[in-house]
Every structure is written in C-alpha cells, then in structure tokens.
C-alpha cells in the first residue's frame, strides 16, 4: 500500500489524477477505482484531462463496500439499520432500567448510537476506568455495557457494519483492480484495517494530507501510512510558506506578492452581498465564467444567505433547493396535536393544503376567522384516527397510514410517506411522545431534481476542498469570524472530552485539528485570488470578532483590502441603492413617491370629499383628539381588526353594566341600601352573568380556556362591587334616577350622542357615574385639552336639558382590590379600610360633598376628599360650580376646534405626545393602536403634537384673569 503525504492538497490530487489517467490508457483491461466523498466534483476534475472514463470508476466508500459484497456474493447478509439500532438500544435500556431510562431517553438513544458507531469504527476495546470519578465511571461502564449487549444481540445474518463481515472475506480472487483513496471516511481504524487487507492483493494508493512536523493539524493522520510512504512537495514559495507555518506558534512574514485579499462588512448578510457583488462585477468587467468562482461557507445560516443572494442575482450555483415536504409536515402536526392538544397545531395542519377535506381556501379562511374570534376549533380527526389504543410502533404507524390514505390528496409524496411508515414497524412498546421523536429523527427529506447549469458557481463547505481540482480562479472564504471559522467545538454530549481521552477515542482536539487541516486544504487551491471575508457584528448589533485564522494570515502575508464602497450596482439591490441616497432614473413612479414622501413629511393629503358623519360621540371626539389619522382609519374607512377570542375590555364592561343594572334594586337609595340582603348575592350575580352570556350567544367562547378564567374573575369582582355600592348608597342623600341613560344634543354644526351608565339626583343636583373595569381618572389639565371629556359632556348635556346643577362626575372601578394591612394576625381589620380602596375617581361639587358622603370625617370612604380642620373646608377632588362651568367652556371650545379640523379634512399623522414621560403615557395613542402598520410613523418626518404638560387647573379659578 502506497501513501502519498504532503500538504499541497490540490496539486497532489491533480498529479494523481493525471498519472492514473495515463496508466489507465496504457492498461485498458484493468479497472482503476477512485474512492472519493463527492464523485460529481471529481468527474468534473477528470474531464479537464480526458474525454472518457473507460476503465476509471469514480465511486464513494459505500459504493466500494457494495462492490465487495457483490464480488463475494454476500447477498444474505444485511447491515444493522439505524431504526434497528434505535429499537434494540431502547429495549436494552428499558429492560435494564439503567440511568438512561428517562422520559427523554429517545434523544439520548440517538446520541448513544453515534457513540456506538464510533466504538465500532475505532475498534474500541475496554479501557482502564478505575481513575474516573464514580459518576463518570458508572456512565461510561453503562455505555460500554449497552454497546456490548447491542453487538452480541444482533439478528441472524446481520452485522453491525459490513466492514466486520468483509474483513474475513478479502482474498486473492480479485487482484487486477487498482484503488485510489481520496476520502476522509477511511481515516477510522476498522476501515483502514480493511483497506490494508485489500492492499495485500491489490494495488492501493491513499492520499493523506499531513506533514512530518508536530503541528496539531497533522496528528489525526500520522498513524495512517503504508509500506511505501511518499511525500509530495510543491515549489510554489507562497504555498510552501503557508504550509510550513499556518497554525503554528511561529508566523514569519512573507514579503512577496500573495493572492490574499479581504472583505470586511458590517453584518453576515452585508458580507454575502458584497461577495456576490464583487463576483458579479468581476464577471462583467473581465468576461469571466461562473465556474471560475467558488465560495466556501461554514454553516447553514451562511448557505441560506448565499443561495438567496445568488438567486436574486440570477447567478447559477450547484446547491439543490430543499423542498417543503408538506405531507410529512402534516403528519408531524397531527401527531404533535394529539400529544399536546394545542389548537395552533391543528390549525396549522388544516392550513397545509394537503388534506382532501380542507383544500378550499375560502373554507379555511372561515375556519381561521371563527377560531380567531371565538377561540373554538373543531377537531375532525381524533375520533377517526385515535392513538389512545396504540401500544406498539406497529399500532402507531398503522394509524398514520390510515390517516394518510383517507385524508391526504393523492400525490407521489403521499406514496413516499406511506412507504416510510410501512417500514417504521416493530411490535416493541412505544409512547406517542417516543413515536413523535422517532418520526422526527428518521423523517425523509425532499430535494429538487434539477441538474445544475453547465456553467455555475461552486458553493462548498469547508470539508469540500475541491476548488483547486476544479481549477477555480477565484475563491472566497466567508464567515471567517472567531468561533465560526475555525468552528468552535463544544463539550456538551453524553461523553465529555475527558471521557473520550480516557477511552482513547477522537476528542475535541482531534476535531479542531481536522478543521485546521481542511482550512489548509482550501488555502492550497492554487488560485490567483483568495478572499478572506468576515463581519464586524450581527444584524441585532452583537459584535463579532475576526478569526484567529485571519489574524495569523495577516501576520504572515500581505493582504489587500477590497473596497466595498465601489459603485457595484445590481437590479436586485435597488433597495440598498436608495438606502445610500442614490436613485434609479428608470423607476420614475418610485422616485415620484419618494419625492412626495419627503415633501409632505409622510403626511396624507387633506380629504376633499366629506367622509365623516356629522353625528359624533364622545369616544369619536377623544379618538380624533388623540390622532386624526387613527380616526380616519377607524371611523372613515371603517377598518376594524379581527375580533379576538379573548373577552375584550369593552365586552367585560358590557357584562358588568348588565349585572349592575339587574341588581340596582339593592342600592337605588339609602333606604333600599339599608335593607339590602347580600346572603344570596353570589348566586344572583352568577345567574345574571350566565343569563347575559346565553342571551348574547357568548357561551361558545367559554371553550377558550382563558375566557372561563375571565368570567370567573368578573363574577367574584361583581360580588365586591355590589356590596361596596350598597355601602356607598347607605351614606348618600343622592338616589338613582336612571341607568343606561341615552344622551342626545345638537351643537351648531354636529349632533352629539352617548350613554351614561348611571344618573343620581339630590334636589337640584345631578351626579353621574361611569362603571369601569379598570382604573380611570379625570386629569383637569388634560381635560382642558380634550382628553377624557366624555363624562364632562354627558354631565353638561343632562344638566342643561333638565335645568339642574352639576353635582359630581365619578368613575367607579369594579376591579377587585387587595387590602394591605399592618395589623397583627389576632387583630381585626376595620371594614371601612376595605371600602376606602373602592373610593371613586372624578370630581364633586363643593356644595354637595356631605350629601355624597354623609359619613365623611377626615377621609371619605366614597370619594377622594377629606376635611381639613385648620382651613375649615373640604379638599381633594372638589370643584366649585364656577370651576365646573369654566371647565365645560374650555371643553366646548376645544371640541368646536376639533370639529372644524375634522370638517376641513385634516387626517394628519400627528398623534399627541409630551416631553414629560408620565403625561406622554396618558395622551399618546400609539402604543396599543391597531393602525400603526398603516401610518408608518416616521421619527425623521412625523412629529408628535405636544400637549401642555403644565398644571392648568389655575385656569378654572374664579379670580383668574387669563381664563378664556
């Protein structure tokens, strides 16, 4: 056996190819087998030197194994499949009840099988375990025991891997073949032993990428050598310097010209775009071909970026697109739904469009809308395809085959899926969770069946070091950031790095050495141009460090920077062109829109056609006051979001109003309140809530679990609310004269309407109360500027129509309160302290404070007011009759101005705001706005309409000369 060593990887392979082509031509009746990892690339390389491969076969290592099996007619034997390994290992773990017998054992089994494969390929024998800590010793001993049980419990005519079987069969019956190995797969002990035995009867050549020095990159391959050990050396001074010092502790400078360049970008996406742009421009400028370029990528993230960018540029490449296997996705969604009963999985299953009963898009939209609004989704499958009776793998697969046959649209993919589950059989006991894990582990994938263009760019990972033999003229190494290239290998498996070292198996240092060796192969591509590409950060702003590889190359060689600011433009990057301040004169419509956007500061034109009714409500006025553009979308265009399955605040409020109206007889006045019985109050409230839900068809929405909790909470809150209202009415001279009272009023230019939750009266004074399911208050300074003016308008309208005086406007929060007490555990809390938690927000006329609360002493338990003895008056949320009227005057003037803006068609994107953070939170409507995606508020062009953050209550005082 001849081994060809040296680090000049590409040139070594080229010479090997040329030499064996010449030999094959001289010996046409002898077969020459090239065993490689990627035959298609090597076929391209061969055809650069010959027109035919008459007696040259380019095959994989697995193809070689099949060839040997056929030659020795071992047809009755089979290799243990991955499914068999999983099933046997699972049975062994469950029978022995060892430390791996956990709820997550399936994930452990998959990792154990990889360890078992490594044991086999490295011809593992028992190691000395005495020096290990007890837990590590138990773990490793358990793993070794499972491996030994697995390998000794194989079915008849079954081997763990074919190498074991073939080693005993190799003889001199086939001595004419020549084997040339250019593959990483052979560097495992058992495989290498098999090749050595083949070399006893056949001519065998192995290419090994290593040298005689002590660098780590050589160590994984030092033990692999044959009887004839030849070293291939290159006379290229740049490559000689590179191969001698890279990844060593010495980095002497090479002063001559090198092919090394660098591209530095802000993010990986920008890096890939710069690479592709550089290639595109080079092809245009220098009349190059696509096959002159290769890009090396480190992981799936970079590959996805490369494929997307190249597809945008219409540049052909060698990567076949992964297809979405919708039928398999549907099966996994169905199993997962049966496992977790998450309606979102069931909805996604229906939306796969592969089910015969759910292939109508309009019908699917109706189902989605119903689910979004009501939270209810019918399960049409569970009764037909029930996993509850399934016990074995056979049972679960049978249910799935039935589901596929009966529910899925016929297709080639359906047939493939049935075959998959047909082979997924065993009488072994399984749970649904284990079955789901197994299907995920063994699931097939789909690739597009399209042959690459004859002239295409090469995308290669760092293990596919073929750019040199493909004679690419320029290569790009992307992702050269620390922990990416070279890759960071983590010590996170069942076996830790220390365990691998004790077992004398390949450890983390071995993998690091292999990665370094592969990088050196890539750099030995003998190209005229090599670009090292990296990024300074991620798209979310996290910094990325340049790789130690780049730092050492920069110490060793002169590296030229590629100017990424050159005017490289392509139609697929027009957005970037505009982002950098440029424009494409051919896109006249877009340019006109951008010009208009800048000139108008992202503001819509005023409406020229009346779009709004002159019938207004307080909520409409408050919406327009907060943001005219929101008003335009909500009341002009009438754009409404989907109803949510969760009960919304307004719906909860309606239920509360209904129940309070039904129980109002308990607190109509102080006499009825004093006689009120509350022993059966909880039952009464429950009945009223259920009655409302039935009358309004809302019981179906209780299928949405959160709604059950909300209704239960509302019922509890209402018990406290009614008790508090009874207690408040006991201490008041006011009495209820109306509930859910309609309000109508004609202003000079518009009509105004609304509904008041509750109206109380005492002599010539009216008091109105608004029941709220959350905290709300009246800020006088903001009310002057049009915020929370609903109750003020209602009170003003009622008192003017009834010719009465303004007594109070109050907000009652029905939300349950939690009493915090400082008393000892054996002391009783005063009920008054609990009732004080329910004090109403709002304002009371100073003339009727005692009539609202007869029991007011220091602090009122009903309103936010208290008696200040030294001033001999009440203070708090109290206004005089004059202040009430002046406040109404300000509000009236403000709404007239609002209507004038509205009538003139102003729908500007100028929401209210404030420089004061607390005030901003109160007045800005954007946080929970449903129309943010429509207005696209632009901080560079749009501005908030700032409110006055100062305290304006002084404007309401009788002696204020600045008022009005």
Describe the structure.
By secondary structure, this protein is of the alpha/beta class. The protein is 43% helix and 13% strand. The chain contains 35 helices and 27 strands. Strands 17, 18, 19, 20, 21, 22 and 25 form a 7-stranded mixed sheet that branches. It has a 6-stranded parallel sheet with strand order 3-2-6-7-1-8, with helices on both faces. A 6-stranded parallel sheet has the order 13-10-14-15-9-16, covered by helices on one side. Strand 18 (735-746) and strand 19 (751-762) form a beta hairpin. Helix 27 crosses helix 28. The protein starts with a strand and ends in an 18-residue tail after the last strand. 32% of the residues are buried. The model has no long low-confidence stretch (mean pLDDT 90).
């Amino acid at each position: 056996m001849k081994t060809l060593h040296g680090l000049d990887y590409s040139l070594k392979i080229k010479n090997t190819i040329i030499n064996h082509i010449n030999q094959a031509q001289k010996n046409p009746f002898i077969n020459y087998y090239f065993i490689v990892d990627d035959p298609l690339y090597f076929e391209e390389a061969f055809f650069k030197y010959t027109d035919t491969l008459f007696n040259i076969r380019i095959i994989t290592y697995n193809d070689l194994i099949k060839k040997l099996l056929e030659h020795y007619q071992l047809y009755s034997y089979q290799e243990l499949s991955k499914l068999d390994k999983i099933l046997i290992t699972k049975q062994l773990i469950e029978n022995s009840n060892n430390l791996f017998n956990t709820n997550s054992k399936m994930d452990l089994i998959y990792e154990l099988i990889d360890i078992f494969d490594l044991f086999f390929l490295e011809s593992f024998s028992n190691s000395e375990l005495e020096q290990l800590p007890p837990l590590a010793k138990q773990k490793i001993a358990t793993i070794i025991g499972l491996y030994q049980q697995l390998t000794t419990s194989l079915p008849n005519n079954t081997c763990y891997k074919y190498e074991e079987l073939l080693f005993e069969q190799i003889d001199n019956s086939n001595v004419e073949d020549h084997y040339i190995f250019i593959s990483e797969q052979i560097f495992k002990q058992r495989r290498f032993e098999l090749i050595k035995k083949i070399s006893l009867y056949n001519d065998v050549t192995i290419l090994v990428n290593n040298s005689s020095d002590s660098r780590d990159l050589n160590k994984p391959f030092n033990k692999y050598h044959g009887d004839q050990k030849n070293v291939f050396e290159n006379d290229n001074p740049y490559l000689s310097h590179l191969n001698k010092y890279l990844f060593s502790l010495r980095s002497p400078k090479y002063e001559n010209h090198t092919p090394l360049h660098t591209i530095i970008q802000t993010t990986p996406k920008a890096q890939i775009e710069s690479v592709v742009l550089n290639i595109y421009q080079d092809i245009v400028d220098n009349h190059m071909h696509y096959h002159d370029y290769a890009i090396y990528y480190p992981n799936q993230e970079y590959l996805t970026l490369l494929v997307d960018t190249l597809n945008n540029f219409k540049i052909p490449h060698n990567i076949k697109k992964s297809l979405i296997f919708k039928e398999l996705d549907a099966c996994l969604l169905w199993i997962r739904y049966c496992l977790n009963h998450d309606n979102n999985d069931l909805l996604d299953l229906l939306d796969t469009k592969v089910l015969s009963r759910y292939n109508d898009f309009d019908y699917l939209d109706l189902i989605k809308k119903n689910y979004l609004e009501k939270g209810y989704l019918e399960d049409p499958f569970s009764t037909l395809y029930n996993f509850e009776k399934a016990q074995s793998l056979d049972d679960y697969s049978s249910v799935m085959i039935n589901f596929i046959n009966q529910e899925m649209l016929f297709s080639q993919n359906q047939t493939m899926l049935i075959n998959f589950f047909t082979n997924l059989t065993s009488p072994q006991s399984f749970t649904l969770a284990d079955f789901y894990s197994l299907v995920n582990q063994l699931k097939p994938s789909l690739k597009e069946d399209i042959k690459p263009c004859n002239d295409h760019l090469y995308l290669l990972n760092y293990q596919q070091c073929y750019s040199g033999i493909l004679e690419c003229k320029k290569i790009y190494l992307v992702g050269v950031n620390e922990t990416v290239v070279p890759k960071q290998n983590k010590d996170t498996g069942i076996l830790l790095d220390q365990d691998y070292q004790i077992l004398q198996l390949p450890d983390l240092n071995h993998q690091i050495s292999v990665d370094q060796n592969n990088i050196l192969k890539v750099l030995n591509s003998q190209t005229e141009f090599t670009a090292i590409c990296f990024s300074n950060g991620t798209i979310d702003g996290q910094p990325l460090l340049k790789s130690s590889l780049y730092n050492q190359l920069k110490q060793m060689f002169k590296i030229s920077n590629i100017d990424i600011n050159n005017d490289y433009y392509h139609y697929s990057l027009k957005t970037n062109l505009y982002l950098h301040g440029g424009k494409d004169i051919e896109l006249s419509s877009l340019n006109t829109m951008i010009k208009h956007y800048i000139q108008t500061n992202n503001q819509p034109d005023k409406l020229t056609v009346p779009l709004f009714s002159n019938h207004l409500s307080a909520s409409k006025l408050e919406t327009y006051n907060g943001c005219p553009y929101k008003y335009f979308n909500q009341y002009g265009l009438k754009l409404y979001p989907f109803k949510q399955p969760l009960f919304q605040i307004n719906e909860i409020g309606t239920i509360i109003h209904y129940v309070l109206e039904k129980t109002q007889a308990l607190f109509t006045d102080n006499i009825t309140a004093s006689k009120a019985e509350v022993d059966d109050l909880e039952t009464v409230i429950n009945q009223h809530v259920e009655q409302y839900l039935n009358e309004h068809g809302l019981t179906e929405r209780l299928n949405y679990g959160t709604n059950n909790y909300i209704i239960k909470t509302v019922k509890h809150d209402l018990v406290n609310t009614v008790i508090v209202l009874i207690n408040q009415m006991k201490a008041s001279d006011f009495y209820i004269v109306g509930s859910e009272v309609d309000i109508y009023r004609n202003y000079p230019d518009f009509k105004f309407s609304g509904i008041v939750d509750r109206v109380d009266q005492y002599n010539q004074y009216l008091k109105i109360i608004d029941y709220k399911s959350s905290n709300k208050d009246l800020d006088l300074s903001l009310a002057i500027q049009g915020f929370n003016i609903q109750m003020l308008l209602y009170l003003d309208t009622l008192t003017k129509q009834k010719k009465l005086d303004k007594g109070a406007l109050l907000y009652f929060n029905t939300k349950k309160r939690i009493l915090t007490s400082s008393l000892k555990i054996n002391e009783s809390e005063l009920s008054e302290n609990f009732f004080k938690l329910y004090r109403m927000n709002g304002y009371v006329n100073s003339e009727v404070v005692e009539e609202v609360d007869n029991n007011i002493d220091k602090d009122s338990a009903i309103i936010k007011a208290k008696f200040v003895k030294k001033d001999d008056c009440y203070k708090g949320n109290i206004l005089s009759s004059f202040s009430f009227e002046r406040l109404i005057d300000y509000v009236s003037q403000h709404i007239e101005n609002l209507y004038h803006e509205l009538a003139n068609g102003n729908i500007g994107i100028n929401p209210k705001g404030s420089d004061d953070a607390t005030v901003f939170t109160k007045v800005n409507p954007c946080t929970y706005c449903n129309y943010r995606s429509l207005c696209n508020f632009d901080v560079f062009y749009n501005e908030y309409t700032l409110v006055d953050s100062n305290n304006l209550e002084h404007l309401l005082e009788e002696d204020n000369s600045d008022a009005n």
